[in-house]
Amino acid sequence: MSRLASGLQRPRRSLSPCEVLWCALASCGLVLFSQLAVAMVPRLFPSLYLLAMLPIAGLVLLAAIVLGRLWRRFIGVTASAPLFVLFNILLSWGVYIFVIRRKTSSLLDMLINAECALLLWGFYRILSCDPGIFACDSSYLAEAGCKDFVEAIYTSERLPMLSRVRQCTWCKANIRGYDHHCPAFGTCIGQKNHRLFMALLTGFVVAESTYTMCSTK
């Protein structure tokens, strides 16, 4: 839970149970705000097509991010992006099961349930798997003639094995095939989890599209 609450790998003080609870409540509140706002869009603008609703949904997400920053600034409560993602999946799945499900066909029902289950599994996998962390060894530094590992990375012509290793500026981990640090998943994206990351992004787009299509019927 602390990994989800912190949403990052940067070394930091451990959160107290009270702080974790407030973080979870803030994340849950942002999810409720964003989901209710998105649900109101087709009711306030019934003549809009589905594609026209997507930019509005993006604005709602942006508003949720701004609200989260305001909470952190004025109330001192920090929401967690990974918890936001997790609660968003669970809430969408719950709303579908208890509200929307009876209006959908059996085939579509199986599809949506499978999508949500796969998203939860993929979310767990990307949180728990190794993105490609490269263990620092003093022998590498000696071979490259560098004082520290960062210098060895950025002079990788001396040491070809480090040519695709980069240090994350956020969590300070050395990652093979480093792409970026993803705040939404609370982990670095590297050589070992890049495909999973792309699959998750695709899954979220497909699941949200299916969910929106069913909820607007």
Automatic annotation (TrEMBL):
Keywords carried by this UniProt record: Acyltransferase, Membrane, Transferase, Transmembrane, Transmembrane helix
Membrane topology reported for the UniProt record: Multi-pass membrane protein
Catalysed reactions, semicolon-separated: L-cysteinyl-[protein] + hexadecanoyl-CoA = S-hexadecanoyl-L-cysteinyl-[protein] + CoA
Signal peptide extent: none
Catalytic EC class: transferase
Molecular function as annotated in GO: protein-cysteine S-palmitoyltransferase activity
Annotated ranges, domain Palmitoyltransferase DHHC: 163-214
GO cellular component, one term: membrane
The enzyme's E.C. designation: 2.3.1.225
One family name in Pfam for this protein: DHHC
Major localization listed first in the record, in broad terms: membrane
UniProt xrefs under InterPro entries: Palmitoyltrfase_DHHC, PFA4/ZDH16/20/ERF2-like
Transmembrane segments: 20-41, 47-67, 74-99
Protein location: Membrane
Superkingdom in the source lineage: Eukaryota
Domain note: The DHHC domain is required for palmitoyltransferase activity.
Recorded family membership: Belongs to the DHHC palmitoyltransferase family.
Protein's name in the database: S-acyltransferase
Upper taxonomic lineage: Eukaryota, Viridiplantae, Streptophyta, Embryophyta, Tracheophyta
